[in-house]
Design goal:
By secondary structure, this protein is an all-alpha fold. The chain has one domain (2-103). Helix content is 84%, strand content 0%. It has helices at 2-23, 29-49, 55-78, 84-103. Helix 1 packs antiparallel against helix 2, helix 1 packs across helix 3 (55-78) and helix 3 (55-78) packs antiparallel against helix 4 (84-103). It is flat.
Length: 104
């Protein structure tokens, strides 16, 4: 169960990171409320996950999920550049996430 909570926390982190773009500097009410809600849910789920999981592992995986998802959605939604170096770095982060999961 803590791994599911951690994964959901990471997905909500992606949501708030992408949501920041849509808030337009927190001037748009609905995106701002949704982004703030995603932040809160993400932190609460992370807090629940670290009751069981090692803090360092959970935090690294949480930020890794957020990083990878945000980069991918940045490419898809905002036409951010796709380069071999960026894709290679994403692969390294995913490898790190999987490695931490299997040694925790």
């Amino acid at each position: 169960m803590p791994w599911i909570l951690l994964t959901l926390a990471g997905l909500f982190e992606i949501g708030w990171a992408i949501g920041l773009k849509y808030t337009d500097g927190f001037t748009r009410p609905l995106p701002t409320v949704l982004t703030a809600g995603s932040m809160l849910v993400s932190i609460v789920l992370l807090g629940l996950a670290v009751k069981t999981l090692p803090m360092g592992t959970a935090y690294a995986i949480w930020t890794g999920i957020g990083t990878v998802g945000t980069v991918i959605l940045g490419i898809v939604l905002f036409a951010e550049p796709v380069t071999a170096m960026r894709l290679g770095c994403i692969a390294l982060i995913v490898t790190g996430i999987l490695g931490l999961k299997f040694v925790a």
